[in-house]
Amino acid sequence: MTYFPDIEKIRYEGPKTDNMFAFRHYDAEEVVLGKKMKDHLRFAIAYWHTMTQDGSDPFGAPVNKRTWIGDTEMETAKNRVEAFFEICEKLGAEFFCFHDVDVAPAGETLEEFFQNLDEITDLIKEKMEQTGIKLLWNTANMFSHPRFNNGAASTNNAEVYAYAAAQVKKGLDISKKLGGENYVFWGGREGYETLLNTDMKFEQDNIARLFKMAIAYGEKIGHKPQFLLEPKPKEPSKHQYDFDAATTMAFIQHYGLEGDFKLNLEANHATLAGHTFEHEIAVARSYNALGSLDANQGDMLLGWDTDEFPTNVFDSTLALYEVLENGGIAPGGINFDSKVRRSSFEMEDLLLAHIAGMDTYARALKAAAKLKEDRFLDELKEKRYASFQEGIGAKIVADEENLETLTDYALAHDQIELESSHIEYVKSRLNDYLF
């Protein structure tokens, strides 16, 4: 069955096209800095927002029109597989990602859930073999069900902890079955409401225990995907243990996980943490821990995770510049953890929204590549830190100075002149690269 019979495969037609269902900037085969655009970006379609989001919000009922809804949950799940791979093929996306509950009904028991997962992932594997589309990453949803009210790995209930461990084991089995390149942990409720009844260290110790179990199990079954932690502040717990990239890296290093774990970073999560997306990527890069990206954007006027499709070229350019500085993002990728707006409720909007996001990142990639080729930002930084390239600065960097020698130097050179950053001019020049 074809779910989008009137829409052909989306092709690159250039910026002057009037065809809504065409790329204006994303040319998968275009070579940028010696590598095809598709290989720089490694686009992945996110199963959850694409297939299960219904357009409801706290003030309104579902509005999305979806033709894959069947008479039973399993029929709907099977229809979704067909529709999803049709979307991926039409967009030319080579990767996808999902939570376990996105693809299969939870059923009445854990055993039934696992049976449903086996049946649906059999279908997914068939579609992967038919299309060549690969699994970027999968993960376990351990935050939506009421059992995870007080967390999963950070729970106060040992039976809940065991249930979460079973979901992770199944997730790794599925990852091996489908050849997943990464496996993500997003601690949606790994946090706390109040310290009045919380043992913070005990809860974080237990989270680390589960991660180490996952590492050991992956080694046991001969499947070692890149493990990723995804930082997110505030939402839904008031105090999330994985607040931002720096907090999460502190956790990784404290528990000796840096050899196995990197970060999956999301633009909207950066906003909620009070950071820019490029800041979070730069933090991860400084620890050699940049793993993968969730491409979306938030609304600066709203204080929650709106997961809008990315259309801001300025922000996306600075994010991709950091990716280029990292030498790329593989085996990670860029998945669209984005949902269509409530007013975009037609089936075709799923394709139009992804086209917008892919075109935005394509424009951003070309701008970031030009910045790198011209060494525009490199030269700014070299000039800013030039005083550390010679004289006393070079000696400081070479660890040849101490507090006594620097005091002697400062007493003899206490008339200091600073240079202006001319940052307004710099930002104006940056616009020249974008438009």
Outline the secondary-structure elements.
Layout: E1 11-12, E2 22-23, E3 31-32, E4 35-36, H1 37-41, E5 43-46, H2 47-52, H3 73-91, E6 95-99, H4 100-103, H5 110-131, E7 134-139, H6 158-178, E8 182-185, E9 191-192, H7 200-220, E10 226-229, E11 239-240, H8 245-254, E12 261-266, H9 267-272, H10 277-286, E13 290-294, H11 313-325, E14 334-336, H12 348-374, H13 376-384, H14 391-397, H15 403-412, H16 423-434
Parallel strand pairs: 1-2, 5-6, 5-14, 6-7, 7-8, 8-10, 10-12, 12-13, 13-14
Antiparallel strand pairs: 3-4, 9-11
Helix pairs in contact: 3-5, 5-6, 6-7, 10-11, 11-12
Question: What can you tell me about this protein's structure?
Answer:
The structure is a single chain. The protein is an alpha/beta fold. It folds into 2 domains: 11-374, Divalent-metal-dependent TIM barrel enzymes (TIM Barrel, Alpha-Beta Barrel); 384-434, no CATH class. 46% of the residues lie in helices and 11% in strands. The chain has helices at 37-41, 47-52, 73-91, 100-103, 110-131, 158-178, 200-220, 245-254, 267-272, 277-286, 313-325, 348-374, 376-384, 391-397, 403-412, 423-434, and strands at 11-12, 22-23, 31-32, 35-36, 43-46, 95-99, 134-139, 182-185, 191-192, 226-229, 239-240, 261-266, 290-294, 334-336. The strands form 4 sheets. An 8-stranded parallel beta barrel has the order 5-6-7-8-10-12-13-14, surrounded by 4 helices. Strands 1-2 form a two-stranded parallel ribbon. A two-stranded antiparallel sheet has the order 3-4. It is globular. The relative contact order is 0.11. The model has no long low-confidence stretch (mean pLDDT 97). Homotetramer. The active site is at residues 99, 102.
